[in-house]
Amino acid sequence: MSNDTILITGASDGIGAVYADRLARRGANLILVARRAEKLAALAERLRAEAGVGVEVLAADLADAGDLARIEARLREDEAITGLVNNAGIAGEGRFVDADPAYLTGLINLNILAVTRLSAAIAPRLAARGAGTIINMTSITALMPDGFTATYPASKAFVLAFTEALRAELGPQGVRVQAVLPGITRTPIWTEEQLAGIPAHMVMDVEEMVDAALAGLDLGEAITIPALPDIAQLDAYLAARAALRPNLSLAHAAPRYGLAAGAE
């Protein structure tokens, strides 16, 4: 990624800030996007000094339509931008029966709408160029919707399916597309009190998570689960899913439903 320009969302701290650090040390120039301009400015100053790369700061709330349109326009028009890390997202909606509809709308706007539209803004340029990178941050909850809250895992399942479809379309045109599924990661999204109640062996440091994700990118992985010890388990899951395909759309209902096949 040396001399590339990568736009990173949710870059003010946590996963996004570590991506910024690691990509800067690979020689990439950066455009950092997040709501908190002061935190972005401090990070940008450090990375310029330590890595000697160009770092631009764009303060934006991607759940806001106007701010999202502004970042979309930059991705669409700036030929220097060769990569996108869609990291911005929120969780924490609690029980669905107690959910605040406005909070759910903001979560969907950030976790789904922003990821889709920012990807759509850059994808045509990258495809035409025959090179570039899109990294979408999803979550292990995309694979276990019954183990968390309702809306957040659903939003991350969308990102996973979306990223797989993007890779199928853009990969043959030379664009690298990767879905990253972190588990519980030590970032500011978790309080120390929350982390104290989770077994230590289930919590990964953010630096290790990002380093593993970038190693997965280097290996050409479509789906990177940093904590998964045996990639054969993921391969088996994907193979089992693929095995369903021939029987998912047929002319008649399955016999177990007791319908007369071909009845008028």
From TrEMBL:
Signal peptide: none
Record carries keyword ATP-binding: no
EC number: 1.1.1.298, 1.1.1.381
Sorted UniProt keywords: Oxidoreductase
Family affiliation: Belongs to the short-chain dehydrogenases/reductases (SDR) family.
Described function: NADP-dependent dehydrogenase with broad substrate specificity acting on 3-hydroxy acids. Catalyzes the NADP-dependent oxidation of L-allo-threonine to L-2-amino-3-keto-butyrate, which is spontaneously decarboxylated into aminoacetone. Also acts on D-threonine, L-serine, D-serine, D-3-hydroxyisobutyrate, L-3-hydroxyisobutyrate, D-glycerate and L-glycerate. Able to catalyze the reduction of the malonic semialdehyde to 3-hydroxypropionic acid.
Protein name in the entry: NADP-dependent 3-hydroxy acid dehydrogenase YdfG
Record organism: Sphingobium ummariense RL-3
